[in-house]
Amino acid sequence: MKLPKNPHKGMKIYCHKCKRDNPTCNHYDIHRYKVKIHVVGGDGRKRTKVLNSKNYNDAVKEAIDFENELKATNYEKVVIEEAGNDYSILDAVVQYQRYLSGQHKYAHKIKKVSVEYQKECMRYCKFFLDSLHEVRDLMATRVVEVNQNDVARFYLWAEKHYGAKSFNKCMGALKAFFAFLIDVEEIMMKNQFAVYESKSVVMKDVTTLTKEEFQTIIDSIGVVNPFQLLGGKGERKNMYKPYLVHGFKLFLLTGGRREDVVELRWSDMLITIEGVKFFKIANKKVNRIRRTEEYNKYVPINDDLFELLLEMGYEAKKNTDDYILFPERNVKAKTIMDALSKSFSHYVKESGVKKDISLKNLRKTYITWMHRAIGKNTGLLTSHSSEKVLKDHYIDSAVLSAVEEATLKIRMFGE
């Protein structure tokens, strides 16, 4: 954004973040034209307005209209723009993105959120802007002008595009966006998304694997057809990998998330004075959200898991920093994670197991049997915040009736 050599009287370029006229910063996405009008007979007083248009000639027209309005009201009209609390809807979303990414000017109000959460919030905000753009000029529409008609139009759009769970997340994200404008930016306005009818989410039954089903999947590796047909041109992809058997067993016996299992190292193993073995690993999910490296989680090494580790070379590798799974890797961890996920689904189908399951069901199977052994303390090891989260998402109700045992001597499938 530039001013011509001889700009219209009082015209400036203004940065909403730096709160400066004619700034030298690189916050180009929130720069706007601004006009300062001297009050005639006002002892140097001025009236200012940040203009909507990013086109210089259109901005000049806005400036002239503003000056005429001031003259008509004897310069009594005051537009408070420099406080930074009267954004266009487009600028408001830009400010929200800065806030979520930790770059907001009010550092004391910033909450630490994950990058994935930031992307999700911005995606829903973009959809709202798309909906609003059908009837309004996004640069000319102030956030205080958003009304219930705009909410209703977006509500109907979201109903058509999302299931109940995603619909609630979408509407909740917009409610949080406007709460940010009110609570953080201190804009005097009503949260138009404060009241809406959320959708009832029907919880699916938690699905775990039996010992026979898991063994059937393992036995199918190297036996059934390893090729998966890709859509479109009849292409085939070989889903077999030499680390699948050990990988699937590690998922089942540690209950870890994909990155936990794939990045697990022999050096993560610790042994207490009493001889209790466990893995101490970074709690990547919590650390990402809180932007720290101080949180860890602990995976008990029970008899099942230790037998597997012996099979994978424990005696030779126990004092090394090698990866436990596929130590000779020449690809990124993400590539291995994706291969494990896709290959598991392939071998479930080819093995004839009829359940609708994926790799994450191995974690649910583990947590189910963990809960049988140590009950309400399960969340201490799985990093879940409440018993309700476990029951809703991880614990198979068929196993909940088993007598809880207060011990870490877990045997998978109860044997």
TrEMBL record:
Organism: Flavobacterium ginsenosidimutans
Protein name: Tyrosine-type recombinase/integrase
The Tyr recombinase domain, residue ranges: 204-407
Family: Belongs to the 'phage' integrase family.
InterPro entries the record matches: DNA_brk_join_enz (IPR011010), Integrase-like_cat_sf (IPR013762), Integrase_catalytic (IPR002104), Tyrosine_recombinase_XerCD (IPR050090)
Alphabetical keyword list: DNA recombination, DNA-binding
PROSITE patterns: TYR_RECOMBINASE (PS51898)
